[in-house]
Fold this sequence. Notes:
The structure is a homodimer. In chain A, a hairpin with a 2-residue loop joins strand 2 and strand 3. Chain A has helices at about 5-15, 20-30, 35-45, 45-60, 80-95, 95-100; strands at about 35, 65-70, 70-75. In chain A, about 30% of the residues are buried. Chain A is of the alpha+beta class. The first copy, chain A, is globular. A three-stranded antiparallel β-sheet of chain A has the order 1-3-2. Chain A has one domain: Orthogonal Bundle (Arc Repressor Mutant, subunit A).
Amino acid sequence: MDIHNIEEEQVKFLRCIGEATRLRILKHIIDGEKCVTDIVNAVGKEQSLVSHHLKHLKDCNIVIARQKAQKAYYSLAHHRLAEIIIQSESLVKELPVCQEKDCNE
Amino acid sequence: MDIHNIEEEQVKFLRCIGEATRLRILKHIIDGEKCVTDIVNAVGKEQSLVSHHLKHLKDCNIVIARQKAQKAYYSLAHHRLAEIIIQSESLVKELPVCQEKDCNE
DNA sequence: CTATATTATGAATATCCATTCATATAAATT
DNA sequence: AATTTATATGAATGGATATTCATAATATAG
């Protein structure tokens, strides 16, 4: 795998987490695996849509799925993913737009 | 600015850096400001396209522009941006796909 | 065995977005 | 003043992708 493929993978990764519903899914499973129904309730979107996004996240190796009976449990594929999510959030708060708008939760 | 706007800004940010040409631009100016012509040569894309992407990056507060005579110099809007770029790259190398393919430059 | 609960999937649609092309603006050089 | 250099911009287009809908698949419960 050369540098170009790395960059392609990096773009694929960033684009994958850079979508509203997927980011909400990730933030919801950040503290441990959750089943699909649970995630659907948390993000407030259609089951079908959540399932599509979970597949997308899995194809990008961002989450892993564990099957237990008729339920599927999803969790982050790597502990460092949580760091990136947290750090990019805290960075965004420091960027000019947020600063101007007095950016605190 | 409440939590929802933060998340919107985070998505906007991640999506903005999650594009091949823009990521290449960012990696090229990571060590200091560069003029447009220089960036165009580095990324090997049309001047017009690079200009559009620079505008996009500026609108997202990811880069800042400095005008000097007829030249425009672009640089990262925040020192922590470099960290995110580097860290997401190193994280991607640790994800399953890259591991399988024996992922080293 | 039928019904219900849980998750996945394919097709269709609609929206978004990267790219190209043509052109504008503005400064510098001749 | 005319030409060249450097950068920006608006419109058009093609391709990607989020969402919805209908339905499949599979397991459990009654």
